[in-house]
Amino acid sequence: xxxxxxxxxxxxxxxxxxxxxxxxxLAGILVYIFFHGFQAITWDFLTLPPTDSMTRGGxxxxxxxxxxxxxGAISVALPLGVISAIYLSEYAKQGTFIRVIxxxxxxxxxxxxxxxxxxxxxxxVVFLKFGSSILAxxxxxxxxxxxxxxxxxxxxxxxxxxxxxxxxLALGVSKWxxxxxxxxxxxxxxxxxxxxxxxxxxxxxxxPIMFTAAAFFTAILPKSIFDEVMALPYHIYVLATAxxxxxxxxxxxxxxxxxxxxxxxxxxxIAIIIRSAMRRKKRW
Amino acid sequence: MTRSFREIIIKNIFAFFAFLSVxxxxxxxxxxxxxxxxxxQQISVFKFIFGSAWYPTYDPPEYGIWPLIVGSLVVTLFACxxxxxxxVLSAIYISEIAPASVKEILKSVIELLAGLPxxxxxxxxxVIVAPWLQETFDLPTGLNIINASVMxxxxxxxxxxxISEDALYAVPREFKEASYALGATKFETIIKIIxxxxxxxxxxxxxxxxxxxxxxxxxxxxxxxxxxAIPESIFxxxxxxPASIAAEMGEAPFGSGHYHALFATGIxxxxxxxxxxxxxxxxxxxxxxxxxxxx
Lengths: 284, 295
Description:
The complex is a heterodimer of chains A (about 280) and B (about 300). With about 280 residues, chain A is an all-alpha fold. Chain A has a single domain, classed as Orthogonal Bundle (MetI-like fold). Helix content of chain A is about 75%, strand content about 0%. A two-stranded antiparallel sheet of chain A has the order 1-2. In chain A, strand 1 (about 50) and strand 2 (about 55) form a beta hairpin. In chain A, helix 3 packs antiparallel against helix 8, helix 8 (about 175-205) runs antiparallel to helix 11 and helix 10 runs antiparallel to helix 11 (about 250-280). The longest helix of chain A has about 35 residues, at about 1-35. Chain B has about 300 residues and is mainly α. Chain B folds into 2 domains: about 5-40; about 45-295, Orthogonal Bundle (MetI-like fold). Chain B has 12 helices and 2 strands, in the order ααββαααααααααα. Chain B has helices at about 5-35, 45-50, 65-95, 100-115, 120-135, 145-170, 175-180, 185-195, 200-215, 220-225, 240-250, 255-285; strands spanning about 55, 60-65. Chain B has a two-stranded antiparallel ribbon with strand order 1-2. Chain B is globular and about 75 Å long. At the A-B interface, helix 1, helix 3, helix 4, helix 5 and helix 6 of A face helix 1, helix 3, helix 4, helix 5 and helix 6 of B.
């Protein structure tokens, strides 16, 4: 009898330890990046372009580039994702067609990010002749985050009680109007949470933009969507691996990493907070 | 235009957009092949996959990706050895053992870990883990299999943990209650009742975690070391497929054999991860009904 409880104690300890290890890994990485990146963050660092062959100066063009790319990505993925989710949740009936779509979305979600990069290069950059540009990079990132948006939106739509739809239909309102006026507004907070998470994902990706949008260095800000841009993740990769001043530019690297992490995790945290607030004061 | 006619049009437009994901997947395949297939006018598929020399810039070039495939498999395997126990155990903790407040915090931790950009983990592995490994084990380089595996494991843990947790959470309450009523301890209930009932979900989680690890690019690009050779120990450098594609695409002249070879490597990578995803999808669908009636 004692042995049974002893086994349980050991198991629980191992399980707790594994949760602790994961938490400490995250905390360790964040604390380390914060304390090393912290000194590099100055007003000039955030507002000036790199100077002296990227060994001094700031990262402003990379911040702007990342903003353009993520905004572009979300404006592609959000409408497509929400429409797909509406179809999957409101219109579709069980059957082969829907099954194919679901498998397709799952598989799209599993495509490696570097393969998206290759696709973007082959399709947008070369075939459609967009060149390495904000447009090509945004479209590539948009496709990458599409499954995330579809998943989150569908979940949000499914969480809207059936009675809402029935009440509206009973008043003689058409199906589309019910969706547009009743279901979608009720699901909006959930949809937005998904969109925010998608933005965070797009902001941190490197491989998809390496061959489709990211420039090593640009002195000026992009003027059109057909220009190349610098981007934070790519800038980190470049500073950390290329060139002859790797050790010398360490502070800049830490600073850039801190800005990217703060941006991405800040975005994720906003989504997490919105969602838990939503759960707490659910109106139905 | 009548109302019902308009409704039908809306429905069909929406169906088209929903189908777009499938079309995009098809487009990805088409364009990978379009740019990858020309390579096979130069060498056979067999020599490409099983060729043991990757010297794309030599004259004559050699495009054998076997060392790259081995590199991908090795880092994925070791990453799973770390990530599967940690991911599944943390899921058990979150779903079955943790008090409500800890649970919320841990779920956020897992989610934030999932949100950590891969380039940041790659950077961390390069700057912190590599020098430490190099000094501690007296190695020529700290950029090697073990470093890449640890960093990949951190990327795969959130996938494994969150999907496993969903599976554990979905096990009907009556199962647990019946087990407790028979006098089983919580530990016995978890191991003998809950885990078997959630097994298909946990398997899906592990497969998707592996797919995540094998396709991850920036981590292996930055910390795996980049040696395109079959490794002999876990302290050797490797060059997994994604790393090779990302590192060389910038230098490969457009339309050259090298360029096509990198797309062909992308084809291999794509189909490996596609297979993982289809298996995961099959398992999760086949064993979907974990209701009281099905066991």
